[in-house]
Amino acid sequence: MANNKAKKDILLETGTNEVELAEFFLGESSYGVNVAKIREFVPYDIKTVTKVPNSPHSMLGMLLLRGKTIPLVDLKQNLEQQDDVVSERPVVLVTEFNSLTNGFLIDSINQIHRLSWSDIKPLNQLISGHSPRITGTVHIKGREILILDLEYIIGRLFPEQMSRLTEYESDEHAPQVHESLQEKRNKCPVVIAEDSGMIRKLIINALKKEGYININDFDNGLSAYHYLSNLKQEAEANNQSISELLSIVVSDIEMPQMDGLNLCKRIKEDTGFSGVPVILFSSLINEQMIKKCKQVGADGQISKPEMKKMITYIDEILGLSENENNDEE
Q: What pLDDT score does 306 carry?
């Protein structure tokens, strides 16, 4: 039975672009979730589930787990997967991310795979628009494993709890942004790396509402790194400082092709990016992950969905806070 201790016993070296993927089955189909999001697996016992009237689609009820209740989602129903396979020993996948604990009913656990993020391929853009619950795929031993976007699933099921993930509104009661601060934000080129289309859109909308309008975004770390490398070459060819073309990088941690830790490590180890700050923005931020972020040189790490905190971090790191702006006057 997998648990926290098991996870801690198989920690990966920081910044090596590796991931541990838990493979499980729904019927005959294989799915995968990052082990870092998993708290444990527990046998499914219908006696521990209390149905909730008018509950969202695919929610089985509230699961009693060691004296506490958590939402339990029928993952097969949520994915609208039609098959006649009935598991004799269904399992509950218990996850922790975005400061929330949730349970997902699955048919069975297969195994944990140690992979490189480069092995995981993003979905074709034509397909991804119709399959927002899937962020990528990986081929292992003749099986195609679909990587699930659990944040998206929970966000759609419980929009009132996850409203911070799907909406961002500037504080109407906050003081008006100083005009010169707005102008400075306008001039700051920002690179975003985030594989979830929903979260990427949220970040971009929030940044633009606050005046950060010069944005280039990517759905995986490798594409972002290629773009950054081209910027560096452009700066070198024109005898420019990289800071003239790039102000800051904001990256997710979990991404196909190249994760945020490896992206950050590459940026920080390359003198051509000297002085470029990197913020890691993830649902996986905890004490252990904070240590990993610091090991690869991240200038800050923020838990999703703390959007206002992210804007404040960016302002402070770039020296654009309101206080500093007022001091200049």
A: 79
The phi, psi pair for 312, rounded to 5°, reads: -60, -45
Tally of residues, the chain: 329
Nearest Cα residue to 119 out of 319, 257, 6, 216: 257
Give the domains, in start order, of the chain with CATH numbers.
Answer: 4-157 (2.40.50.180), 170-328 (3.40.50.2300)
Euclidean distance between CA atoms 55 and 92, whole angstroms: 19
HSE (side-chain half, CA atoms, 13 Å) at 72: 26
DSSP per-residue string spanning 57-115: TTEEEEEEETTEEEEEEEHHHHTT-------SS-EEEEEEETTEEEEEEESEEEEEEEE
Q: What is the pLDDT of residues 41-60, one digit of tens each?
A: 999 999 999 999 988 889 99
What's the predicted TM-score (pTM) here? 0.79
Q: Which among 107, 54, 100 is positioned nearest to 79, based on CA atoms?
A: 107
Q: How far lies 187's CA from each of 50, 106, 229, 292, in Å?
A: 54, 48, 21, 31
